[in-house]
Description:
Elements: E1 5-14, E2 17-27, E3 32-36, H1 43-50, E4 58-63, E5 66-67, H2 72-76, E6 79-82, H3 96-106, H4 111-124, H5 140-152, E7 158-162, H6 170-187, E8 190-195, H7 198-204, E9 207-212, E10 215-220, H8 222-227, E11 233-238, H9 244-251, E12 258-261, E13 266-271, H10 274-287, E14 294-298, H11 301-309
Parallel strand pairs: 3-8, 3-9, 6-7, 7-8
Antiparallel strand pairs: 1-2, 1-4, 4-5, 9-10, 11-13, 11-14, 12-13
Helix pairs in contact: 3-4
The structure holds adenosine-5'-diphosphate (ADP) and magnesium ion (MG).
Amino acid sequence: MDVYLSARHVQKKYGETVALQDASLELCPGEILALLGPNGAGKTTLIKILATVLAKDAGQVEILGHDLDRHMQEIRHLFGYVGQDTERSAYARLTVVENLHFFGALRGMDKRQVDAQIEKLAAYFDFGENLAKQFVHLSGGQKQTVVIMRGLLHDPPIIYLDEPTKGLDPIIAKKIRAFLKRFVMQEGKSLLLTSHVLPEVDELADRVALIHRGTIPIVGTPDELKASVGATESVEIERATVPAATLQRIERLEPVLFVQERNHHWVSFGVDDAMAGAEAIIRVLREDNVRARFRHHTVSLEDAFVHHIGELAEKFDQ
Ligand SMILES: Nc1ncnc2c1ncn2[C@@H]1O[C@H](COP(=O)(O)OP(=O)(O)O)[C@@H](O)[C@H]1O
Ligand SMILES: [Mg+2]
């Protein structure tokens, strides 16, 4: 497997706080890799280190054959970085085009190159109508799009996005995800994004790296992570509506492959055949004369996450 970027055993402390304990990951050509983890897991710290904004304490990073510590200048051209401070990533009173020309000039691009790139990006992000507007007059989603365009201006092969849809309404967020996906696929870019929004990761990522307390214990495709749960369907019962003895009977049913505590309210039973599983469970409920609240869903990335990193999932905002 070709690798565009490899980070090995990266460590970082802020004073006494260990942000990255021992983080390793690889980004391959043409892939979208999501660094998925709860607040404080170390996502921003790792992406800032890869973007040379922050110095690591230990570990090695290589980007397209260049060592991060020794070839900082070469590496700066190989990636585009979009951090979280959208408001301060462009000049409020300049128009979108003026902003992009300013940042293009900083990178040593000539005007023609910048214009050509603006035209291309505006087409991908459906942004032509907003190019002449002042940054300050744009909506949150539009501002974020400008900052993403700024990060893509020099046409880098690798893109880092730190929570690209944070704070945006769900419809705009979905639109930006669709634009990004098309851009990355059609232009053959590699994208590393951080997120703690599971549906976002499921929609975008070719591979997911689970980050947990500054380590990356698990990497796989969304399907691999889901498959590792050990069942394809989940039947959930509201705990308060069912006596403990009935729950124990359900646990012992043949179609029930595993039991998982979703949270304080719901107990999840993994099954492979939703119909047969639900039927067996309902039979027990009938026999015990219990009217339970229950629901069913196909195993999701969230189930995989609960399975792998257990209690952490409760901290996720869904
Ligand atoms: N500038 C900083 N000073 C001190 N501690 C920090 C700083 N930035 C982050 N941390 C701490 O490092 C850990 C990882 O933070 P961060 O990389 O921002 O995680 P994430 O992006 O996954 O939410 C957290 O415990 C956080 O509180
Ligand atoms: Mg962060």
